[in-house]
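Schema walkthrough. Field components (list of strings):
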Amino acid sequence: MSRILAHYDVAAPAAEIEARAAALALEQSIEMPLDAVTSDLVRREVVASVERIEGLGPNRHRVVLGLAPATMVRADGTAEIGQLVNMAFGNCSLQDDVTLVDIDLPAELLTAWPGPRFGLDGLREQVGAAGERRALTMTALKPQGLPPTELATLAATFARAGLDIVKDDHGIADQGAAPFAARVAACQRAISEANAATGGHTVYAPSLSGGPRQLAEQARIVREEGVGMVLACPMLMGLPTFDELVRHELSCPVVAHPAFGGAGRMAAPLLLGRLFRLLGADATIFPNHGGRFSYSPAACARLAEVAREPWGHLLPCAPVPAGGMTVDRVPEMLDFYGPDVILLIGGGLLSAGAELEARARQFAARVASLEVPVP
Amino acid sequence: MSRILAHYDVAAPAAEIEARAAALALEQSIEMPLDAVTSDLVRREVVASVERIEGLGPNRHRVVLGLAPATMVRADGTAEIGQLVNMAFGNCSLQDDVTLVDIDLPAELLTAWPGPRFGLDGLREQVGAAGERRALTMTALKPQGLPPTELATLAATFARAGLDIVKDDHGIADQGAAPFAARVAACQRAISEANAATGGHTVYAPSLSGGPRQLAEQARIVREEGVGMVLACPMLMGLPTFDELVRHELSCPVVAHPAFGGAGRMAAPLLLGRLFRLLGADATIFPNHGGRFSYSPAACARLAEVAREPWGHLLPCAPVPAGGMTVDRVPEMLDFYGPDVILLIGGGLLSAGAELEARARQFAARVASLEVPVP
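Field assembly_structure (string):
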């Protein structure tokens, strides 16, 4: 198997970069002085290699390490996401001169992970838009603190307005005001009833949270209530736990939320685009430029690109730009992302107050009506 | 229940800090415009409050938010670590002007977590140092890539030399070269035999990794092989998964490793000191100043302080400064940290080559012989 390429931005001047890259290679493999290694096999097949060093600026270099498959492949040929991240960014996440920018997986290793099980086509089919190459719409139930009945009323309003996906706010967990079981039952019922009345196909995506036992219990409720989609925060639950959740507990599409995903030291396109997709996110929410967060247009474009581009056997993952978006921005966002996207507007709908349903309808209609050139 | 206080460093000038703090309070609670909230209860008991703003510099302020217990307490009064982190740092982890510095938990909420089950006294008892107020010694089996027999030989050498704790390198997972089951059995046997020969009490701490299913299987092997301690990387496995692992799968002490713990945006004393302790780490490894990482002496001192200081019902968690340490630095480190510490030297022993056992003995003897004043 060829090596796993880990791409880093390293803040170091030209005079020091070779030594810094060599130290990084040891840090991310054997974590000990090379001259204390007595095994030839370890030197040859375990120590990370420095594959490339490129200047990016006076004090900034791109360093590409070749991580050895031996550091992460099990005896049966399988691999595990936690150990991949450990080898790529375990210790050096603690070194503030290093940013992990990207990871290239050899084809034989890529098959260790499922990727999205539905992808954007599967999502379109689920919301009654099979064959239409249009953007999908998503909104959020909020604020947390409301009881299940009020959240369900809100869900019904959005369903009547024809939005495609209604997710829980990611802050809604299993709090006393709206415990998971009661909330999910109430919201799913409200949406199913609205769908029956309108002939619509709105899908509810409740937010899963907690440790493995709580997640398994919530997944059981999702199955029993006939819920069609879920929201999950991979970084809060841990990537290996998210991986197992998707593989073993969920038969519906998964929307990934970036909470606790950090900002600076692991590039957003890698974490929220590539890695969440690798583990099976069918859609990935991220902070759009020009909202409440500081992602640049270039970072957003790159994130959408790695989420959707051809990648081995993996279906595409739908990018979901969000974070302070409004209905006014729909044309501009569709122009930027093209039609293979899900637009998420939460507070921007709720701020309509009594006009909520009308504004939600406007959102749905606007997305449905716009001719979006395929980039 | 009184509010949970979350302390942030925010990069904003005085003219903007009030608006920035108010926006942060919404971001970390209801995530929508305040004027779109119709429920009085939500305004009063769910929205985060700005409790304090303090200047730290021309463009830097300390902002203390009061997070509402309603945002994280379940109907049965319990709480969950993932949701605590979500409310304190979920979305704003993505805003690069914000660093989470500390969290104060009200006494009623603190009891939701177990904290260390053994603490430093429990660890001392386990290694035959009950009643002695001395620092403990720890080393690591490396490099990864060696087969179980060679790792076991190394383990036996360290045990004969009288080191207290021998852990797996955190890069050693379940790779083909040394699968978990075979490695743990071999290393535990080697250490038990060495202990029997010398009358020593060296404890082996294998590294646990992977998702919930793999972790449960590894915990079973740990119990069956009579292993006395484990190493775990809470950030790689996810904090909620680490929480459940400690509560439900492990009856032995736990050493936390900081891999994937990041560097800049969540203060190390909070994450590696306070939160890992909260979830039950009996010892917490962190990068010591003057090694391969860039933590300052002040950050290290603060980390050791929060890991050990009185905190509700929680036993102290032993600080484990590490990352490029050498036997030469033992007196200085004991001077800095006092005797309530575990010193971890890995590569600094292995670089002795043929003199490995002698250098390990020197490490053990030096720690045992030094009179360390209690600070």
